[in-house]
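Key idea: predict the complex, not the pieces.
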Amino acid sequence: AQSVTQLGSHVSVSEGALVLLRCNYSSSVPPYLFWYVQYPNQGLQLLLKYTTGATLVKGINGFEAEFKKSETSFHLTKPSAHMSDAAEYFCAVRTTGANSKLTFGKGITLSVRP
Amino acid sequence: DAMVIQNPRYQVTQFGKPVTLSCSQTLNHNVMYWYQQKSSQAPKLLFHYYDKDFNNEADTPDNFQSRRPNTSFCFLDIRSPGLGDAAMYLCATGFRGVYNEQFFGPGTRLTVL
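Result:
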């Protein structure tokens, strides 16, 4: 069975600082990995996804993530944080099979200090 | 714009009073999902439809039911809401297949008094 670990529940950075949100996965087969962002009282919005091919994936709003099979990681980064990046971030892995579904990590809250 | 729409955005019901949440989509996706998300937690899949085929998660309480009368609409029925059912309910859609992401609606926040 696939699973996702997001260590810590809260990350705080200064505006303009590097954002690094960690995600580790467990999967017995090649994983399909996703990062979603959720703003207060809203649904989830896809930031980026890794399926196959290039291991460095670029997403919306300046975010990117790198799939590292040897480390079973898919960390999310952004070079320079904006106030508007403050939100909840979820890493997810997609199971394989006919009834494929997403398994989410517990999420990380990102705060951005002025 | 193509999208996933959930109505209402906020719903208040009384303990034990049945409530229905609705989801519609203009994306023509063949899969529709319902998630429950409690405060500061990850979304938890309740069930999903692949076309008309209903797939219930093993730990979804019987109190939760769903209907999908056509491709565009899906409903979540809570037969007898308890205080523990207060949560955000998210509808998502997608095409079947592991490569395909899910598109989420804005959610309905349910309060049970």
